Amino acid sequence: MAKSILRNMMMCLFFANPLQAFSETEEELSKKLGAFEQRLLVVEQDKTVASSGQSKSQTTNNGFNPAISVILDGVFASYKNNPDDYVLSGYAQGGEAGLAAEGFSLGHSEITLSNNIDDKFFAQLTLAIAEHEGSTEVELEEAFFETLALGDGFSVRGGRFYSAIGYLNQQHEHAWDFQDAPLIYRGLFGNQYFDDGLRLSYIAATDLFLELGTEVFAGGKFPAGGEHSGVGSWTAFVNVGGDIGVSHSWQSGVSYWSADNIEREYGGHDHGGVGEVPLFEGDSHIVGFNAVYKWAPDGNYREHNVKLQFEYFSRDEEGDLTLLNSSPIETSTLNSRQDGWYAQATWQFVRTWSAGIRYDMVDSDNTGSDASVLDEAGWLAAGHVPKRASLMAQWEPSEYSRIRLQYNRDESYPVTDDQLFLQYTFSMGAHGAHQY
């Protein structure tokens, strides 16, 4: 190939200057042709070596060049009531279930490193930076690997990651349509549920989107708890979805979470500064249903779109409650039934502006052998049914920046609270697509 190209070049030179060509002997032309061929061979060898070195470098050094994403999040919060008095009636709070700090605070910022390790594995690590009780904390939020080439629709994820239970739980906070978590997420999962474990999922090769999966976890994170030598909690989920024409799409799913032999400590009602710590020991089971509908004219979601979202969860727990640090030790049996739902709608009416509305409601039926222990531990609702209404408006000049204003009329406990949030979210660096 190279020799053919070189001969064509020589012919061009010949016809471009025929007198000079005829003035040279055949031997001289042959020598020049040989010299050109030798030079071309050297160039080709250098190119091959460079290409080989580059390929080797890409294979061995990809771990030192990950995609880096930074999410800057901050919020100004204002409450009519004292946020330290907040409770969700009938639900013992755990995880990160409290309200955002009053005034200016860091919010929930993230640093994410991700990369394809090779053609078989992808890996991601996310550090969360947030304020908690006046101090800045750094937490390892996710650190997982995921297979890329198992084939036949199967995928495995392992490490620390958000569970696939429900719809909202898998999304990072900056991808939420409202500043705070729905009440049912706050009550059941402490805002979000993640743990260390393994996920196996399967996506069927059908026109209709069909995903099935199961997860096993260590069981050390709320709403589970305690130390387990093997599997402490597990989930199963099914999601289906599809398109209706060009402008409409939908997805719905059911999920199940289960944990046995839980040893869960959390914050109860600290009456009189006693410092009693509730401990729940028993079994817990959660069932969930979710549905999402999206509309965008001709599939162009950048200009106008509508999103409707609904989730329902129900939890049954049975076991024993102990108030640690009480003297004498106070105990009670516990039989708990809790459920709740939220529905929300968002509407992007122009390219950079959108608005949303959300309504939450949760309920509980908790009984035990000692009502006073249940009350101290935060399980009694005293007939109150928590609910909340939220309004949101946000400005997004680009996909990398967002300013959001949100108002809540919160009836989580008998004293109604008016809450106002002004939030900013900025994205820097590489950032992958969000889930449906």
Summarize, please.
This protein has 436 residues and is of the alpha+beta class. Helix content is 16%, strand content 50%. It folds into two domains: 2-52, no CATH class; 72-107 and 132-429, Porin, CATH 2.40.160.10.
Give the SSE layout.
Blueprint: H1 2-16, H2 18-23, H3 26-61, E1 67-79, E2 103-105, E3 108-116, E4 121-132, E5 135-147, E6 154-162, H4 183-189, E7 194-203, E8 209-217, E9 233-244, E10 248-265, E11 277-295, E12 305-324, E13 330-350, E14 353-367, H5 371-376, E15 387-398, E16 401-411, E17 417-429
Antiparallel strand pairs: 1-2, 1-3, 1-17, 3-4, 4-5, 5-6, 6-7, 7-8, 8-9, 9-10, 10-11, 11-12, 12-13, 13-14, 14-15, 15-16, 16-17
Helix pairs in contact: 1-3
How would you characterize the overall build of this protein?
With 436 residues, the protein is an alpha+beta fold. The chain folds into two domains: 51 residues, no CATH class; 334 residues, Beta Barrel (Porin), CATH 2.40.160. It has five helices and 17 strands. Strands 1-3-4-5-6-7-8-9-10-11-12-13-14-15-16-17 form a 16-stranded antiparallel barrel. A hairpin with a 4-residue loop joins strand 3 and strand 4. The radius of gyration is 30 Å and the shape is globular. About 8% of the residues have low confidence.
What would the keywords be for this entry?
436 residues, alpha+beta, Porin, 16-stranded antiparallel beta barrel, globular
